[in-house]
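Hallway conversation turned thread

IA: we were arguing at lunch whether anyone had actually written out LysR family transcriptional regulator end to end. Turns out nobody had. So, for the record, here is the sequence (295 residues) and right after it the structure tokens. Reply here if something looks off.
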Amino acid sequence: MTLFSYEIFDAVARQGSFNKAAQQLHLTPSAISHAIAVMEAELGFTLFNRGKNGVTMTSYGASLYPSIRAVLNSDEALQQSIARLNGLEKGKVKLGAFNSVCAGLLPQILKSFMASYPQIEVEVYQGTYDDVKEWLRTGQVDLAFLSATCREEFNLTELFREPLLCIVPQDWPEPPNGIMTPELMNGQSFVVQCDATDAEMRQFLKKYSISTERRCHVIDDQSNIAMVEAGLGISIMPRMLLRSCTAAVKIYPIEPEEDRVVGLAVQRPTAMAPAVEQMFHHIVDFCRQMDPQLL
């Protein structure tokens, strides 16, 4: 099998479709289908399940995917090293991030990075904590923004801390001194997100043994805020998500203060490609020098 075969496999795995993979690689769908069939014949087993709604990896394909990504990442690193020796700053960086970072911080980071390194292509993948962790494990992304709740799984470089705030409906009684405490939250109805996006809230509730009635289980941040606005419960969210909030809700600090810690993880810490290393240092420097008002 050739390196291009691996690129075809990767495109099909990412796109979940022969047609979309063909568009990405500027080939015909029949050429993609033929290339996968040749790979399967050579390997002796099926790599993809074909269906009306697209294709999915078989268990065999999924087990090979991390190794195929490693080969492609190594080739990208080699090409970037060659470019650097020729005095060129070029390459590709795949970056994974969760919603609040994508909306509140990443645009400024990418703008400043691309101004300094216009020849480096950046691909952004947005998802839940679990999505981003899986992309990092399998090599689909080179760098990933992650919460410190993932610290046991990855070597994180801390970027910043931001306080957790309590968001309540507009008609909620004013708490003493304008501060929410675990005692005031105990027994209240909560709007919560899925485990993959709401690790900090769950950690906070567990730490202070806060008993809750969980009425709404939502996926995204804006739905969370909308449910609170409708009076369906209260919630705990990082400040970055609420910085530009215009909903009819009240936002209060929490005591004892709790922070969300956000860090940057690398897919291959000891073998970063030149472009990945440039992006890594740019993000770290940007976050450590940024205006706290961005958080």
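OS: looked through it. Residues 163-258 form a domain with the D-Maltodextrin-Binding Protein; domain 2 fold (CATH 3.40.190.10).
IA: good, adding that to the notes. Residues 7 and 72 are 7 Å apart (CA to CA).
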